[in-house]
Amino acid sequence: MRTLITDIAFLMTGDAIRQELKDAYVVVDDNIITAIGTGAPVLDTPADRTISGARMLMMPGFVNTHHHLYQTLFRNVPQVEHAKLFNWLAFLYEHWKYIDEEAVYTSAQVGICEMLKTGVTTTSDHLYLYPYGNNAIIDAEIRAARDIGVRFHPTRGSMSLSKKDGGLPPDSVVQTDEEILVESERVIHQYHDRGRYPMTRIALAPCSPFSVTTDLMKQTAALAEREDVLIHTHLAETQDEEEFCLQIFGFRPVDYMEEVGWLTPRSWFAHIVWASDADIRKLSEHECGMAHCPASNMRLGSGIAPVAVMKQTNMRIGIGVDGSSSNDTNSFIGEVRLATLLQRVKYGADALTSREALAMASMGGARVLRMDSDIGSIEVGKAADLIMWDLDTLEFAGGLHDPFTAPVMCDAKQVSFNMVNGRVLIENGQFTNIDVRALVARQNTIAANLMAR
């Protein structure tokens, strides 16, 4: 099927030279971008469908590099509104341990829909707890993503240290190292797509240095090397974590990652708030990736990640909304705006421009997930992952002096159009394939039941 999107008022390509076009068009054949230009398109064969981009700003779809989708069930929980990370975790684990396949399926769809609405076309997820050994919940999450149509890069997460072993989680949500490794292989072999334009890829993701054994960290890195998949974990999120790592391992967090073989181009880490200059040099030397999660870091009082410094290095930097119970929303464009503003609090007004933040949100995220040959920019030969903003909405009024940065600087609320892999999922601001009201009702019922336990 050939789709022509024409009369696009403004087109931010996100390509290597960051071209910004006016009066543009894009041709999509099935799921691939086959032509881009300005003015009136000249087609060798007519389009099966023509979509107007008049008064629209088109961008490459955003790539979310860190999330915990099940946490959309635990937003705005008053008991942890003012808690720091470790206390926040200790309280919520006692409710998280009751999630099941229905809860994971529904909560994943809620989080994905909210991200689609705010510009995401590809998302990762870090699902690291499997209550009472229920390994099928990751299958439910993948099914939820496929049913909606988002490009998905979930991680088979893990925890193997419970309270009795000196960790934080209850016994009911941890597994043995052996079971984790067996299940990791199973999920890779069942779901990981090694082809072009993959809709599902798998990474391996022990939860954090304080929730798994050292041996599991090493064996996970070795398994990822054998299977040629990426690895992911939380790192250097809080000062408490640094103190824990020094006390238990005798290393600061980044040095510990080096000790267990995790400083590698196949790794990416969430947060990296508390990083020294030496840490940043090590991460850069190994071309490690980072998911910057400003809302979560602000919400939990964790600190300000030194992105203004890291962006000058060889690190791969993307943006993540993080779990919805440490953010309370899944607004990705909101995260891009916060990323822009938060760096300026510490490093000055020119620390991070809105265009730099948008590049991190698209091509930056694609590089983090090692998918930049297929997604992250609007170029011929890449997957048709496209978003458009209606510039005639209230928040943009008077803000079109630079339309390309308006979604960030003017605090955009939602896209008008979202296409993933050539399939239109949002048009005229409405989902094309999901009953949002029914989804919200299911989610609220499940959330209330879980918090009542």
TrEMBL record:
The organism sits in which domain of life? Answer: Bacteria
- Keyword annotations: Hydrolase, Metal-binding, Zinc
Residue ranges annotated for the Amidohydrolase-related domain, each copy included: 58-422
* Record-listed E.C. numbers: 3.5.4.32
Key word Metal-binding present in the record? yes
- GO MF term list: 8-oxoguanine deaminase activity; deaminase activity; metal ion binding
Q: What is this protein called?
A: 8-oxoguanine deaminase
Organism (species): Candidatus Cryosericum odellii
